[in-house]
Amino acid sequence: MDREIATRLRWVRMYHETGNAGLVCVRCGISRPTLRKWLGRYRDDGEEGLRSQSRRPLNSPNGKVSEADRAKILRLRAERKGARRIQSELRLHGQRELSLATIHKVLCKASVKPLVHARRPSQPKRYSRPVPGDRVQMDTMKIARGIYQYTAIDDCSRFRILALYSCRNARNTLLFLDRVIEEMPFPIEHIQADRGGEFFAESVQRRLMSECIKFRPIPPRSPHLNGKVERSQLTDLNEFWLHHRPTEDAIGQRIEE
């Protein structure tokens, strides 16, 4: 039994035993109106009537929303309109100015579920350059400790050049860049790469400018823009490096093949 109910039940029983309301009030430290209230509740509902009840008013004289407004809000929500849209509709047609908090309160009290808008998944924009050499995608991939693969692939013709180096730095990038310029069967206009430090070195940028090649770095966290070279490296990883060790003999010749 709840402690409050037990205390009030003790007041009621003491009154029934003594029949003296003043004596009960003095001993228990309560007022006569309080004793009369709990005696009446015990007489009407028994022990359940001794439980504390909510003091929240059933009707508020200062309530903003009438039954007509409430019905109009629920009708507009049934038309899949949000709280801000409902507010505009009431302002234009109902000549009523209700806050968003008031509208939300009406919807929550009616247990209306929130609107869910299905979002279509955005498809990445795929493109292909129409002229060979217009854009060459370049990237690096770590194969093992101290072994890095440089890859360059033409966006239009898919002509590809690979090379292995001990680390990815400006010196090795220059060596690979010279090889790409020499072996590509067409002039290169743009080189596109990620924002790795090996491509942003001053010596690399000067080399590109001397060859009149424009450098186009892709935005951060956008590997899909370099999709052809990324896919090429993934294919190499799954179909070649999965079956060959980087330290085996004649690995350079196997790569050339």
Summarize the structure.
This is Transposase. The chain is an alpha/beta fold and 257 residues long.
Describe the structure.
The protein is an alpha/beta fold. It folds into three domains: 3-50; 67-109; 136-256, 2-Layer Sandwich (Nucleotidyltransferase, domain 5), CATH 3.30.420.10. It is built from eleven helices and five strands. The protein has a five-stranded mixed β-sheet, sandwiched between helices. Strand 2 and strand 3 form a beta hairpin. It is elongated and about 115 Å long. The termini are far apart. This is Transposase. Residues 126-257 form the Integrase catalytic domain.
Keywords:
elongated, Nucleotidyltransferase, domain 5, 12% strand, five-stranded mixed sheet, 11 helices, Integrase_cat-core, single chain
State which percent range the strand residues make up. 5-15%
CATH topology of the largest domain: Nucleotidyltransferase, domain 5
Which secondary-structure class do the elements indicate? alpha/beta
The SSE string, one letter per element, is HHHHHHEEEHEHHEHH
Q: Under the CATH scheme, which architecture of the largest domain would be assigned?
A: 2-Layer Sandwich
Number of domains: 3
What's the overall average pLDDT, rounded? Answer: 88
Determine the CATH superfamily of the largest domain.
Answer: Ribonuclease H-like superfamily/Ribonuclease H
Largest sheet: 5 strands, mixed
CATH class of the largest domain: Alpha Beta
Strands ordered across the widest β-sheet: 3-2-1-4-5
Characterize the overall form: elongated
Number of helices: 11
**Rg (C-alpha, Å):** 40 Å
* N-C termini distance: 87 Å
Protein name: Transposase
Organism: Mycetohabitans rhizoxinica (strain DSM 19002 / CIP 109453 / HKI 454) (Paraburkholderia rhizoxinica)
GO molecular function, one term: nucleic acid binding
Region (Disordered): 46-66
